[in-house]
Amino acid sequence: MTGLKITGAIILIFCGALGGLYAAGRIERQTEFIKQYIIFLTQTETMISYCSADIIEILKSINSTPLMLPMISSCLKKMEGGTDFTSAWCSSARELCSEKLISGNDLDLICSFSEGFGTLGADEEIGKIRLHRSMAEQRLSELQPETNTKKRLYRVVGTFCGAMAAAVMI
Q1: Farthest CA pair distance, the chain
Q2: CA 9 to chain centre
Q3: Rounded distance, CA 124 to CA 117, Å?
């Protein structure tokens, strides 16, 4: 009987720690998404500068941002179905927000990129992209200290809750 209690206690501690690691990982993915969004903006600026590519060509050619790929492919499908870029982009970003890959604050930042995109000249588009990249970099600099603190907190709280549950069980 004592062996079962010890085994149960270890399992509860382990599950609490895993829960903390899961929450910490989710926070880390949100930060990583912003980093990949900055890469996306840089690649978009380059393609507009040197290739004069339209948005469909840009979205089809970007594959170095794995966290953004579901959003990009969803946006492309919606655009092929006749939806305009702004609606398709924002709708795809909302889907990621519902999956908790991005936060509500980041949703506004990402959706604002699509407003009026493709209606300006190349120089204006590049200026707009640079503005959005600087806003994303500022958001990333705000997120990183918060992310590190929350990751440690979630790990500790998860382990502590598992240990408390094990103590109550014993």
Answers
A1: 75
A2: 35
A3: 10
